[in-house]
Amino acid sequence: MPIDEHLVRPKRRDAALNNERLVQAAREVFARQGLSATLEDIAKHAGIGVGTVYRNFASKKEIVETLYDAAIDSALADAQTALEIEDPWVAIVSFFEVTAANQAQDRGLCETFLGHDGFGPNEPIAEKLVAVLSPLFDRASQAGVLREGVTVTDIGPIFAMLNSVYRMSNARPDLWRRYLALMLDGLRASDRPALPLPALDVASFKTALSAGD
């Protein structure tokens, strides 16, 4: 028996709208509550039943990964934009400030990058991060503006430390800027002594980022 397309199309359109509404609701809930938010929280925020959530996404992990794909592309685009800045040190500062500002506004984004609650970058994505960001750090190092021993893999621990500041910033949402400035001062070449320990090597960095995968 032929299927009446007029009966099928509205259903498909509704399903697409529900999916878009869910993704947007998840983005807003995770930004405010972090990755501890539940599917029930997302459904409530979207104004739909939790059963609809499960019909669109098999798990919270699937929703996080959907959002994370877009987030990683945005972060890599920010790194590419920073490379277009002529001054190598200003480029480094720009990358950190833009990335930190995005993470400060979105707890879920920050926690995803840091591999919290079982979510985080997989190894191929970690490799991509290293590949895109290495030229930024290599250029600054060759220009003599980075402290000796500073490398691309230092970004993980730096953003992990900033994450603690984001959590303290309810009264002062921009408090992280003070501590980022202190950290950047520590990265800049000067007459300071050599760093006491080497940075993570690339293999360890990828393992650390993908620990929650």
What does this structure look like?
With 213 residues, the chain is mainly α. The chain has two domains: 57 residues, Homeodomain-like (Arc Repressor Mutant, subunit A, Orthogonal Bundle); 150 residues, Tetracycline Repressor, domain 2 (Orthogonal Bundle), CATH 1.10.357. The relative contact order is 0.12. About 3% of the residues have low confidence.
Q: State the low-pLDDT regions, or none.
A: 5-11
Number of domains: 2
In CATH terms, what is the architecture of the largest domain?
Orthogonal Bundle
CATH class of the largest domain: Mainly Alpha
**What's the helix count?**
10
Q: Would you tell me the structural class of the helices and strands? A: mainly alpha
Spell the H/E element sequence.
HHHHHHHHHH
How much of the residues is beta strand, in percent?
A: under 5%
- Mind describing the biggest β-sheet? none
- Please report the total strand number as a whole number: 0
The CATH superfamily of the largest domain bears the name Tetracycline Repressor, domain 2
Measured as a percent range, the helix fraction is 55-70%
Question: What is the terminal separation in angstroms?
Answer: 46 Å
CATH topology of the largest domain: Tetracycline Repressor, domain 2
Oligomer: single chain
Alpha-carbon Rg, integer: 20 Å
Integer average pLDDT: 82
How would you describe the shape? elongated
